[in-house]
Specification:
With 88 residues, the protein is an alpha/beta fold. The longest helix has 13 residues.
Length: 88
Amino acid sequence: MPTSAGQSVMFLLPPLVERLNHLCVVILPLRALLVDFGKRCKRANIDFLVWSSREPLLELGMAVVLVSADRAPSTAFRSALLLFTDLC
C-alpha cells in the first residue's frame, strides 16, 4: 500500500471496536516507526507494548504489540507469543 493509504487503521480499529483479550501484533520494518506507531496508539487510548527481549513477557490486556522486523523472527519473541496464547 502506498504511504498515507490508511495502513494504521488495520491495527488501530480492532482494539477500538472490541475490548477483548485479542492481541494485534504489528511488525514494523524500521525501529523509528515503533516510536511513531506508539504515539498513534497512545493518542487513540490503545494499550500497547513495544516488545523487547529485555521484557520478554506479553501482558494480558495489551491490545497491540509493536515489534521491529529484526526481532519478530527471534526465538524469544515466538516464545512470548506462545506463552501469551497459553494464558488466554
